[in-house]
What does this fold into?
Amino acid sequence: MSDRLALETGANIRGCILNVNINADGNKKSISGPGAGNYFSVGKTFQDIEEVFGEKVLKENSAFIAHGTGTPLNRITESHILSTFAKEFGVESMPVTSLKSKLGHTMGTAGMDQLWGALGAMETQNCSGICTIPKIADDVFTENLDFYLKDQAFDKQKDIVMINSKGFGGNNATASVASANLTMSLIEKRYSKTDITKWEAKRETVLENRKVEKEKAINGSIEPIYEFDKDVLDLADLEVKKNHIKTSTGFNYKLSSDLKGKDFT
It folds into this structure.
């Protein structure tokens, strides 16, 4: 959700995504053949972190969850991408892991699997390692990278985790996930102390409600919520005029064109 909505609802803020950089490979000799697109998406993500938080955070407080496909060409190219940009940006020993070793190639591997892994790693400062191999393959680039081959704690505080989708079919996406602490530092720049105080009060209620609902789920006492046909509007609920439509629920939708003269002249 947006930062504004998070404050309005009292959401428990666990982090934020700075940006999602997407680049296609362009011409390819085969569907599985790696292309150049992931260089662009990863490179831009490094730039995002340095732009927002500075080079110190990038160099000392960042880690990477790789797409982690074990096929030779993809493991070579992805490791080369990470190693290249780690060197270019002066990151001396960037922790690298992949979740496929434990979860397989799920439908969410490039999205929610990695996102949850990133949030958990930053909250606990423990990283899930690549536990299914005895060593890194000889053709993998390792310079300026620290591949975690077991579950272990970070040696330094990590507040940024990059996640990566290396396009098997030709598209690539890379994003940077910031910790709750870094996220709050951004929110404090954008919103007033009053806004944040109101959010803190609402969050207390949200956390209490979450605790109650969790206990219900554990005890098997939670009831399903069935709201079929609730608040569905039909013709009798609409007051239609030339310039607006009013609903029986109190919503007043103004009818006006989004097109301006410059759009079609």
Q: What stands out?
A: The chain has nine helices and eleven strands. The first strand starts at residue 15 and ends at 24. The chain has a mean pLDDT of 92. The two ends are 37 Å apart (CA to CA).
